[in-house]
């Protein structure tokens, strides 16, 4: 029987990805917020309610775009390393630190977007990883989609207690 092909044998090699800065995601977030503001204006709400809602929407937009601003840079995930044989996933943060993923909460891959919510060591709240198509080259994008589809990430063990 012939040896397995290179592409098959490399499926379990460690995956090291470095994300480029996305140009699409901030624009998409801004577009969604503009549409939401337009919808609020069309509702005919009282002035005070409209003003409070628009301020909340503005704060939501600032929070959504914070990883692209200077005050949220430490939260920006700039890459990931996955070692499938050892079942280890690490996130590479903007400041160069590597955080080991302890639990994967959600993963989703849709055309043009991959998102993951994970719990990492030394963090209490989940870290969201959102990757758009323009952040990776074609082969790494396909590998990441397969990785998310396969889902060989760390999961919390079921304790059997209700």
Automatic annotation (TrEMBL):
Transmembrane segments: 28-59
Record's keyword terms, sorted: Membrane, Transmembrane, Transmembrane helix
Protein name: Toxin CptA
């Amino acid at each position: 029987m012939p040896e397995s092909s290179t592409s098959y044998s490399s499926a379990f090699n460690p995956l090291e990805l470095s994300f480029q800065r996305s140009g699409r995601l901030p624009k998409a977030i801004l577009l969604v917020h503009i549409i939401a503001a337009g919808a609020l204006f069309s509702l005919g709400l009282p002035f005070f309610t409209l003003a409070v809602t628009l301020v909340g929407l503005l704060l939501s937009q600032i929070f959504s775009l914070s990883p692209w601003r200077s005050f949220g840079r430490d939260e920006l995930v700039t890459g990931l390393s996955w070692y499938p044989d050892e079942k280890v996933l690490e996130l590479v943060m903007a400041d160069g630190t590597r955080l080991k993923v302890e639990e994967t909460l959600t993963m989703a891959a849709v055309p043009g977007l991959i998102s993951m919510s994970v719990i990492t060591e030394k963090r209490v709240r989940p870290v969201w990883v959102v990757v758009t198509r323009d952040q990776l080259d074609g082969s790494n994008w396909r590998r990441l989609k397969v990785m998310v589809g396969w889902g060989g990430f760390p999961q919390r063990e079921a304790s059997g207690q209700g």
